[in-house]
Design goal:
Its cofactor is [4Fe-4S] cluster. The protein is α/β, with parallel strands linked by helices. It contains 19 helices and 13 strands. Helix 15 links the parallel strand 10 and strand 11. Helix 4 packs parallel to helix 18, helix 6 packs parallel to helix 7 and helix 10 packs across helix 19. The structure holds iron/sulfur cluster (SF4).
């Protein structure tokens, strides 16, 4: 069964259908994405088809059980009616959150749409909501659980909706790295009171890594406050260990004037991170070897082609893109930055955007006074976020109506406490921070 014909009016789904039936060429997006996600939820060794298929899924990652047949067989109209009726029955007891990168067939049911941190904070402002259905990926649901009250259940409709970038830094590998850095640099502050290393984790990381930062004098950053957070970290540490996204770390530190020669890349698969003692001694920012499978697809040649075809085009990319792409763009910024830049532009502007395709195509529909297109015309969606399908949303909502909470994401209280410390440091570093990837 495919989901395209009867369930997916959205243009991203049509793009994937075009790739599948051969009408569109030049994409490495897997045609199997046209299948319902349940086709891959049982017994798949990796992330499933799509943008993240080449990345390694860590052992112990959450796995989704079988979706009941009633939902797998339902038409788009049936799912729509079941979701609407469950939401009406639950009223303010449930809030559905839709990430900017979520597919339109799901976002249409969202009570709130935004980035991960905006959505987590919105959930905290809804004390009547007994259940928060988070249509994003695993780390986002964890953050929402950390920031919401103990009586609120955070639900991830498909447990297989992970984030390949977040999974590239697991707690064991980071603790091993930390032990090696402590062995080399010790733990004593210098004469200015700065510790040898301050850990900084991107919001796109597991709760365990946020807790690690909380417990080791570190902090969380988002893609919009990364430079503020790095300044905070440099005030307290001689160097920064930045994980999991090397590109956000490199792009941000470079823009702050940190030389590339002082940003070695720590490869957790190699002894000593694959780095010499001299490289570590000279380091200001030790970058973790992680990346986003979606944003690494954007290239300088795509920007050149956009400029050639659309003179005057404004190119905006997300800072998870590689450094040479950010350097070639007119500007780089978080999803919220991109949304605000487009909203503020005079009518008739032309934008080439380097971020996830669902957001780009939604912006193109929302701002018809502009011409807005994705730098990569056949780019894949975030394949893990794409695992959230209306069928899963209908299932978790109808279970709630029946008084059952399924797919709850619960961060252990000790981990949540440590993660909260790192998140609060971020908020104190810049109290008006509202943006994330
Ligand atoms: S777009 Fe990239 S960083 Fe964002 S959830 Fe998907 S894989 Fe993770």
């Amino acid at each position: 069964m495919t989901l395209i014909d009867d369930r997916a009016p959205a243009s991203v789904a049509r793009t994937i259908a075009g790739i599948s039936n051969g009408e569109l060429s030049g994409s490495t997006c897997a045609p199997e994405l046209t299948e319902g996600p349940w086709a891959f939820d049982l017994g798949m060794p990796g992330y499933g088809p799509g943008a993240s298929q080449g990345d390694l899924l860590p052992a112990g990652s959450a796995a989704q059980g079988e979706l009941p047949e009633r939902y797998r067989r339902a038409s788009g109209e049936e799912l729509s009616s079941w979701i609407a009726s469950a939401k009406a029955s639950l009223g303010s007891r449930v809030a559905v959150m839709g990430h900017f990168y979520q597919r339109d067939e799901v976002v249409q049911y969202a009570d709130f749409v935004g980035d991960s941190f905006q959505l987590a904070r919105a959930a905290r402002e809804l004390p009547d909501a007994e259940a928060i259905v988070f249509c994003g990926v695993h780390f986002m649901a964890e953050t929402a659980d950390i920031l919401t009250g103990p009586s609120q259940a955070v639900i991830l409709p498909n447990l297989a909706a992970g984030c390949s970038m977040a999974d590239m830094a697991d707690i064991d590998s980071v603790e091993e790295c930390w032990a090696e850095l402590e062995a080399r640099f010790g733990t004593s502050p210098d004469e200015s009171g700065r510790v040898p290393v301050t850990p900084v984790t991107y919001m796109n990381s597991s709760a365990a890594l946020k807790a690690f930062c909380g417990e080791h004098g570190g902090i969380v950053c988002t893609s919009s406050n990364a430079s503020t957070v790095l300044e905070w970290a440099f005030e307290r540490g001689q160097r920064v260990l930045f994980f999991p996204d090397q590109h956000l770390g490199r792009n941000t530190a470079k823009a702050m004037g940190v030389p590339l020669s002082t940003m070695p890349l720590w490869n957790p698969a190699k002894a000593g991170g694959g780095l010499s003692g001299e490289a570590l001694d000279a380091s200001r920012v030790i970058l973790w070897n992680g990346f986003c499978s979606v944003h690494k697809r954007f290239t300088v040649s795509q920007i050149s082609a956009a400029r050639a075809a659309h003179p005057g085009v404004r190119v905006i990319v997300h800072p998870e893109c590689p450094m040479e792409v950010v350097d070639a763009a007119d500007s780089a910024g978080s999803t919220d930055y991109i949304v605000k830049a487009i909203a503020a532009a005079p009518a008739g502007s032309v934008f080439a955007i380097g971020t996830e395709i669902n957001l780009v195509q939604r912006l193109a529909a929302d701002y018809p006074q502009h011409e807005i297109f994705c730098l990569d015309s056949v780019v894949c969606p975030c394949s893990t976020m794409y695992r959230i399908h209306p069928a899963y949303l209908a299932w978790v909502l109808e279970e709630l109506v029946a008084g059952r909470v399924v797919n709850q994401i619960s961060v252990p209280s000790r981990v949540a406490a440590g993660a909260r410390v790192a998140l609060e440091r971020m908020l104190a570093a810049r109290p008006d921070t509202t943006m994330a990837a």
